Amino acid sequence: MEKKVCIITARGGSKRIPRKNIREFCGKPILAYSIGVALDSKIFDEVMVSTDDLEIAEVAKKYGASVPFMRSAKASDDITPTAPVLVEVIEEYKKLGKNFDYLCCIYPTAPLLQKERLIEAFTILKRDNLDCVFPVLRFGFPIQRAFRMDANSHVSMIHPENLIVRSQDLEPTYQDAGQFYFMNAETLLLKKSLVTDRTAGLLLTEMEAQDIDNMEDWRLAEFKYNYRNQNLS
Question: 36-71 b/e with 16+ CB inside 10 Å = b?
Fold first, then answer.
């Protein structure tokens, strides 16, 4: 029987928003939302938090996640991308005699994530025999009409040939929603990459996601969260 693990990556360091991963968000630590949605989906054999921080580990356990081992210092600095962190977790589990067929990496700052999206992503992953499925947002305006701006605030088009092209005639483009990656575990170990040539995007609406890099983003995420809950009540 196939085994699935949810890995929530929550290291202790955060410079732009101090203690970001356990900062209170609408009444509880923001990390608790990622744990809660993973547990509520009922599709994982284990929901764990990968962290180098003892306080984060205690919060994770309080809200129902496991912390079977701490993240190494090598995988906890500012420049380590997500893939090596996930590889480390899978390899540590193998040392404990636990093997997983699929993994889902959920970021700790994804309070707008809904369990239905996790279930949908896993369905697509298996149905189409993919390496990875992750949520995306469509850019609100064509990036082909983007400008660059110099130190004097002078602007110029990056692709001037698109200046007079109608926006609706330009190809739609998308960005990573920054919520989760549902993956084939063995492919991750083999390719050491989240995105391969067998990856699909799951399109979200603007109200379903919010990248949180600063306090303005944080307030926008809280607005979206409260707005959604008010409309569901």
Answer: bbbbebebbebbbbbbbbeebbebbeebebebeeeb
**What's at 63, amino acid-wise?**
Y
Q: Is the pLDDT of residue 129 over 70?
A: yes
pLDDT (average), residues 206-219: 96
Radius of gyration of the chain (CA): 19
Predicted local confidence at residue 73, as pLDDT: 87
> What CA–CA distance (Å, rounded) separates 78 from 14?
9
Torsion angle of alpha carbons 111, 24, 212, 124, nearest 10°?
Answer: -20
Question: Can you say how many angstroms the Cα of residue 112 is from the centroid of all Cα atoms in its chain?
Answer: 11
Q: How far apart are CA 124 and CA 137, in angstroms?
A: 17
Confidence of residue 75 (pLDDT cuts 50, 70, 90): confident
Helix (H, G, I), strand (E, B) or coil at 171: coil
pLDDT of residue 233: 59
Question: For position 74, what pLDDT does the model report?
Answer: 87
Which residue in 111, 108, 174 sits closest to 141, CA to CA?
174
Amino acid letter at 222?
Answer: E
CA-closest candidate to residue 75, choices 49, 103, 50, 96: 50
Residue 57 CA, distance from chain mean position: 19
What residues have CB less than 8 Å from 191, skipping those under 6 apart? 131
Task: Please report the domains of the chain, with CATH numbers, ordered by start residue.
Answer: 4-138+173-232 (3.90.550.10)
> Could you tell me how many helices (H) and strands (E) the chain has, helices first?
6, 11
